[in-house]
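User: As part of a screening pipeline, I want to sanity-check one entry by hand. Below is the sequence and the SMILES for adenosine-5'-triphosphate. Please return the complex as structure tokens so I can compare it with the automated output.
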Amino acid sequence: MKELLIENLHVEVENKEILKGIDLTLKPGQTLAILGPNGHGKSTLFNALMGNPKYKITQGKIILDGEDITNLSVDERSKKGLFLAMQNPCEVPGVINAEFLRSALNARKEKPVSLYQFYKLLDNATKKLNMPFDLANRNLNEGFSGGEKKRNEILQMLILNPDICMLDEIDSGLDVDAINDVSNAIKSLQDGNHCFMVISHYARLFNLINPTDAIIIVNGKIVLKGDSSLINRVDKEGYEFIKSEYGIEIEKSTEKSMNQVSIGVCATKEMSKNIHEK
Ligand SMILES: Nc1ncnc2c1ncn2[C@@H]1O[C@H](COP(=O)(O)OP(=O)(O)OP(=O)(O)O)[C@@H](O)[C@H]1O
Ligand SMILES: [Mg+2]
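Assistant: Here is the complex for your manual check:
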């Protein structure tokens, strides 16, 4: 039973302050929906909690069950029960998915699981997610479709059984059946012993997993805390009411999210500019 306390968290990325004082308490059994406009710091919060070194904590603390974990490395946090399903899972050529999962599982066990036990676990989890088993034998995320990558993140969650599950836009790119499979997997862990923080822009997933609480992050701060009624309000009205009712100006995210920029895009733009100039 793990309780997570986030105190006055300030986070900088590339020398720019993104999170400006986040306070949150999460208890087992809670499912927190995290909403907010693009580029306002939701993924930054998850990256900072997980210990991604690019995301520098300049003030504040992260306390897990009374222990200050603010300065622990990613793997230490993972072993203590934190898990992040990434918005854009990366491809790792040369690493077999199943081998990766077995190593990650064994790293948190005193006695390694036998190959038979592991494959039984993997078989159950892939069946639960309606995933073709051969994805487990391929290189980690390499050549996976968008939806397959997302299911694979949830497969990791089922195998590792973490106490605190952070899911970043796990529903993006999923077809209707896949959303149902993923929400069933989440529901199977909503047993009072786990806690969830779930980022999404859409009510559909939230309506399936029934969050106990909801927050809205704007300009790197939590501007509203409430229950699941917040989700339906945002779904119907967008974020305009944050300004009209609470007087909070929503800063325009001027920089494109790193995740949306690729060298390919830049190179194409550069090329077309050269062609036009000629
Ligand atoms: N690794 C990074 N390098 C540079 N800037 C970053 C990095 N990660 C985040 N940022 C910047 O921090 C700001 C917040 O980004 P973040 O990814 O947390 O937004 P978000 O709320 O998750 O948005 P979205 O809903 O689009 O996923 C953005 O301006 C983004 O460009
Ligand atoms: Mg994000």
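Points to compare against the pipeline: The first helix runs from residue 42 to 50. The longest strand covers residues 16-26.
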